[in-house]
Every structure is written in structure tokens, then in C-alpha cells.
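User: Please go through the entry that follows and flag anything odd:
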Amino acid sequence: MATNGGIDDNEWQKLPCDQKVQHKAWKARMTGYEECVTLFRTQNSDQSPEFMKYVSLMKKFVIDSNENAREKALDAVFAFVEEANIAGKTVNEVASGIITKCLNARSKMKERAFDIILMYIEIEKQVEITEELVKGLENKQPKIVQACLELLRKGLSEFGSKVLPIKPFLKQVIPLLDDRDKTVRDESKLLIVEIYKWIGKQTLMPMIQNVKPIQMQELQTEFDKLDLNGIDKPRQTRFLRSQQELKQKMEETNIPSSVIIEDPNLDMQEDLDPFEMLEPVNILERLSKEFYEKSESKQWKDRKEVLDDLLTLLTQNPKLTSDTDYSELVKILKKIIAKDSNIPVVLVAAKCLTALAKGLRKSFKNYAISVIEVCLDRCREKKTNVIEVLRETCDATYPGTNLEQFSEVAVTLLTHKTPIVRQCTQQFLTKCFAMATQNTLPKKLLKIYLSGLIKNTTEADASVRDSAFESLGMLWKCLGEKHVFPNLTDLDDLKLIKIKEYAEKSVLLNLRGEPRSNAPIIVSPTPAVTKKPTSIEIPITKSVPPKPAPVIKKRPAIVVAAAPPPAAAAAPPPAAAAPAAKPSIPTNESIEEKKKESRPPKSSAPVRIAPSRSKQTLVNTSLSNPKINSTKIRPNTAPISKSATISTTQSRNQRLVPVLLPPSTKIRPKPPLSTNRRSSIDLTASNLQRQSTSTGGSTSSLSSTNTQSSIPCTRLQTPTSSTTISILRSVSNDIISSPTPSNSNPKSRIPVRTMPMTIIKKSSA
């Protein structure tokens, strides 16, 4: 027996490879599987006839009863799928056997099973693989279900949603979020997150809206962690056989394979429409028998009740069968919107029409025009909540029609007697124009709309005018100045400017109502003026012209020149012989500095005015007055007080002569300065006090009390103990005195300072 057994054991070794893999002994099969790997790898062509011998045996390879032999069999299957051109014929049988026998086995066998499934996708058998994996999701063993979910996730992550479409399996994955097995729930959640990366939130969320709140919260948490514009951005990392040449070119140029997704010629993301993944439903079969009766009931609660039921039914079934007649249902809803006096009932009816239009899409074309007309006409309600709901209904209905079909109704609504209806119509047209092109809005059709819009630009209602300008601006943006401007020649410049402003703000939309990605700006710039080549181009900007400077009438100011001292008088101090300073225009800074400086020492000799017949007038020319900018020259021989200057109205050639007082002259102390404010000092003959005595016409001194009360000043100053004081005298021996407060203007707020005066007896010499 042993010899026979030994002979039997040695006999299978002499068998060819295709017979060893079918032998009853698992060792013989395992040896045959190992020989198959070498055989498949050493074939010169993928169309070698050797591959034909094993096409029908591949199914038996993956379901071998012995796990050790099956592990080697999977290596042979992987080599066959990778090398043989006819491997695609075995996809259904091999994939089915792998799912049932290998996905719940030990880890090494499971990894090789994953490699085979993904290799089938690489040889462009992704449709068959997806079908088999979807069948595996219904398996009763949680390990197999979890492995199928993992395979779908790996395939989507490596190949992308363009290669492995999401639509065939998404509907079966969502219920597994609530599976009783934790591994299945976790893996299904990971797959949903991977789907989210490829199709985005806007597409995915409507598909998973029926998920439990707790699960939705968990998913939302995972979604928030993703950085889809950075590290988590989905990228295709594995390529089909038809994409291998492109992959090699990318590798030769040292460009990472992840950049492939950015290639405009190769979009790896699936253009997935969630609406296409839904099953159509005939809601008319599910309506209550009392719907049509209660919809015409006199009790508004009955009408609202049946409409609420209809709205719930439409919400739960967003996709409707297109071969069903909805004319009776649409007729009832239009009647309610047009004539029902109860606002809540009207709102629910409008929402039902919106759901109907979205559920039928282009199949709603038979009812679109009449529904839009009724909704826009009901905008006369003037209530914001009603207008918003009706506007949503119009937007949902428009994909079923076009501007050419709507033109007749639009012209009628643009001349509606109610301004709010015209406004809402123009706002609706603005959105329609945003989705239009030159093909959908030819010149003939454009003129039909322009006539009504141009007429509404002259309406008394501001909202109607603005909405008309907005519609014209959108047409300008969509079609360009070349097509629109020739029809607007009757409008004035202000209206054209307003239209251009709206055109610059306008945003063009695609057919889905989303902003266009690369919408060109068609607004033409203002044509430039032709210039000569030799000219210099200077940009001209509009600016407000500066206001002309106010004309200031300058008061005549005396120009005082230093005169040589008389022979009888003593020589002036050295400071008096200094040259006169150059005239300068006082500034605010120089004025403040002068105020802070101490008063310069006064000369020991008073000044006597040279003979002149003109009357002198002491005028306030305080440096704080901004209206006086005339040049002033101060004589070096007689320092003049900062608060006053001597001005004459008839002669500018007055000369001051220094006069010395004898040292025995008594100087009275400076009186306290008054704080009264005066605008000017007008020194006239009436202000001079004359007193004559018998001794040669000498002038007697005035009382100190009267003198002190007649000296106005704007700030207090400490009297100085100067030994001399300047006195201005006329030829007629009149003493110039300060004006009394009665001769000044009390309303002026210009500060005035005057020279304190004391009366000194004229020397008998």
C-alpha cells in the first residue's frame, strides 16, 4: 500500500500543470498553482494560447477547499489577470468566488484577494466588479460586508469617481450606517467620507437626508475635519490600462501622478447628479381619494390640510414619473394661487407647484408658461413672504421653458397696471437673462424684450425703474455692448451710465443657476481718443475745481524809515544805527514765537513825529488778524508795540524823529491793563485832550485817573520800571491818547493791545 501510495504520490508530479491544478491531492494542486505563476509570467505575449487552457479553471482556483492551496491559487489568479489579455472573461466568476471564499479568510489571503479585485478594475472591468461588490453587501456575514465596503473605498480612493462611479453603490451603502455590526457601521462611514471628498457636500447631502440625526452628526464631524483644498483633496493614484501611457509620460517628466487630476483634458471627478440616482414615483396613485373634493372646500382648513399632505408626499419623493398626466393637479394648484383669498393656502399651493416642477424638470414644460404667468400676477399681493415663495416657483419652473416661449407673456406682464407685478417680472427676467446666450436670445427676440424694459425706465415708481435698469444691465453683460447699445440710442446719458453700472455688477449664471466659472467681462471700455505720436499722454481725472481764494482788501500800512537824529539831540544808541530789517510776511509760528519773547528794551529817547499836516489814526493791526498780510517794517530807532501800528490814510511818507527827555523827567508807573476786548482804535481829534497854560502854550498833564480808565487791553501785563516811555506827538503839540471804550466796537472778538500812555510836562527848555 505504501509503495502504491508512494507510486501514486510520484505519479502526479509527472502530470502537466493544467492537470495538477485539478488533482484530488491538495499538495498536487498547490504545486500546480506555483507552476502556473511561473508559466504565466514567462509568456512572451498576453495572447499566448497557454492562457486559453486556464480560462475555465480560474473559478476553481479561488474556491479551493484547502486554504494553503487556495492561497497559492490566488497568486496564480493574480498573475493570470495581470498577464492574460482574455482575463476579462473570468471577472464575474472569479470575483464572485473571491467574495464568498476569500474575504472572510486569513489576512494574507484577504490581501491577495484585494489585489485581484483591484487588478480587474485596472483592466477596465470596474462595472462588473461594482456589481459583484454590491451583491456582497447583502451577504449575511459581517466580515464579507465589511470587506466589500473596504474594497469600494480603496477602489474609489485609488482610481477616482470617474473610473469607479458612485451612483451604482451609494444607495446600498447608506442603510449600512445603521447596521448592527460595529465594523460594518464604521466602514460604511469611512466610505461615505470618501464619497464626500469626490462629489462634495452639495451633491451628497440630499442623498443622505434620511439618515438618523446621531449618524448625521457623526458624519458632519468627519466632514468638518477635511481640508478639500489641501491635504485631503482627492487625487487619482492608480490608472487604467488605457491610461498607462499617460502615466509613463508623467513619470518621465518627473511630475507627480497626483497632478493628473488638475489636467483639464482628464477630469477624474464624476459629474454626479443626485437627481439621477433617485427612483421615480407616481404620486397620483398615492393621493387620498378626498383630495380633489377638499381642495375646493369652502373651509380653508380643509384646503390647507390636503395641500399639506400633497407637499409631504412630494418632499418624500423628489423624483416623479415623467409619463404621468399632472394637468388636473396643476390646474387645481393654479386656481388656488390665482383666486384663493387665504394666504397660508396660497403659500402651500405654491410650494407644491415648486416641488412638482423640480420633480419633473424638463417634463414640466407643458405647464411652465401658465404657472409662471399665474405666479407673477399674484405678486400683486405685495407681501414679502408671498412674493418670495412665488419667485421660487418661477425659478423652479423656468428650466421647462425658454425666453422665446415666454416672450408673449412677458410683454403682457411688463405693461401690468400694478407696479409690483412689473417689478417682479423684470427681476425674474434678469435671472433668465443671466442664463442666456446669443443663441438662446437672438436679435429678433431681444427687441421684443427691450421695448417693454425701455418704456419702464421712465416710470414714476423708483422700484420699477431700477429693476428695468438691472434687466438692461444684465442684457448688456450677457450679449455685449455691440448687440444692446444700438437699441438704446433714445436713452439719455444718465440712464446709459446707470445701465453700465448694473452691467458691471451683474453675474452670469449657468443652466443650474450657479455662477459661471470663466464668465468673460463683455462690458466695453470707453473708446480712447486718438492722439498724435509726438504728443505726450496726460491722464485726465475728474476733480472738483478748487474754490478761488478770497480777495482781501489790504489796509494801507505806514512804511517807517529811520531818520538821522537832529544836531541838538544826543547820538542814538548803537542799536538805532543798525540797518532796517527786510520786509517779511508774518506766519502763525513766527507770531507765537514773538509772543513768547520778552519785550525788547526801549530807547532812552522818546520819538517825536516829523512835521506833517495829515491826521494820524491809530489802527488795530494785531498780528492775530489773518486778513492783514501786508508787509510791515519796524524802525530801529523807535520800537513799536506788538499790539498796534501807526497807519495813515493820506500820506505814507511820515517820518519819526527821536527826541530825548531830560533825566529829571518823572515817569509815572504803568497803569493796570484792562481786559476789555476791542476791535480797533480810531484815534481822531475828538479823542485828544488839550489844555493850555500861560507859559508858552505848554500842555498840562491829564489826571492819572482819566488816563488809566481810557486804556483798553486784552491781557494783563506787569508794569515795568522803565525810565523812559515812548510818546508820539504831533507838530501841533497834541498828545495822542488812547480812545475811550465808547468809540470801540464791543461785538468784535479780535484781540487788541495798545500802548500805555502817560502825560509828561513839556520841558521849558
Summary: The first helix runs from residue 2 to 11.
